[in-house]
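Chain A, query sequence.
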Amino acid sequence: MLQAMGYREAPSSIGQRLLWFLEHYRPDTASLNCPVVTKLHGPLIADELQVALGRLAHRHEALRTTLVRKGRNLVQHVHDELRLPFHHIELPATQPDQLDGLLEEVIAKELNTPVEVGQYPMRVTLWRIDEGEHVLCLNMHHLVSDAWSCGIVLQDLIKFLEAGPDGDPGLPQVAWQYADFAQWQHEQMTSGALKKHQDYWIGQLKDMKLVALPPASAATGVRATGIETMAIEAGVFNRLKAIARSERTTPFAVMLTLYYLLLAQKTGQTDLSVASLFANRSVKGVQTTVGFFANMVVLRSQIDTQARFIDVVRSVRGTVIDGFLHEGIPYQMLPLNFQNSGGRVDDVVFQMLLTPPPGTKVSARGVEFELYTPDSLGSRFGLELGLIPQHTGDCSAMLFYTTDRFRPEWAKEFIGDYLAFAQAASKQPDIVLSLRKEA
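Chain A, predicted structure.
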């Protein structure tokens, strides 16, 4: 690593180079923002928050890292110190019934403004509603963060705020900084250690068929995101988690099985490939590291729509385990040939959030942090089912879809059918799930 002018230079990771490439071919670069939004209740001292943010950036190198092009390569500049933009905004007085709409408006504007990662990796905005009410947005670029990192950033910030400007937060030392991981990954790549993962995926995804989705409409050229949301009640979700435990698998695999079965019956395909972002943190020492580790993994399964739900779960369990074992290689690095064209591998996506869910509340120095998911938070994929387990025990199911391919009525029916599948499978895991309605 090179050291010069208050920063040292480090190679970029595989994921950073891929995302950098995609950014230059994507018109909406704000889609690469990776935000944390939280409501703050209580007597917040803005100056103490700024001190805590400074200490947070000192702890995590990624939060003082810029990325720049050097010749044909992307490199990281890890700064000794980097002042992050901090915007403290007083919201105009408004009626209580108008506050939510105002918040959505200002947050949407912030989230739709790209983070200039060549200048700073994170932009901080604090909106003051009144003396004891604020909203905080930590808007990071995806090149330096991912969903797992968002949880680390918020948890550590709360620790620093609780400790006070000079107090000890009691945090253990970060074993690996992100530049350490990128260097290790570079060495793994050049030594050929990642080839076994690449060979696995090439074999697993050979002659893969993309999921047959409606073609994009050329009428408007606008790729807007729609969303439909439903709740999987706590009783249903708890029974599905119990099925996962009995089959020695995860809720992710069980909920993915429901998605596979629904896609199979909607499209008529049984050879299905669904993309998902895996944490990619199996390397010892990176569990508390902030950075872009997540890899897009393609989970391909042969789905028997006439099999019992529990048997399909057992089949999908193997797909998920193999995906986890080989998660170090993102699909974008693979020489894939599709039997059908006109779409993208990440057109159909499944996600399950494992970080603290919206509504989680944690206090620091008399200030309560409440995680918040803005309605304006969308998806950059064609059809994405995102599941967010709630602190109340239920699970929020959010279906993001591009409006140039799907009608709102179709999306509403799809998520409704998913909920019906979840309810039926939770009660009788040995039944065959079907969209056929009884006469």
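The domain at 2-181 is CATH 3.30.559.10 (Chloramphenicol Acetyltransferase). The longest strand covers residues 33-41.
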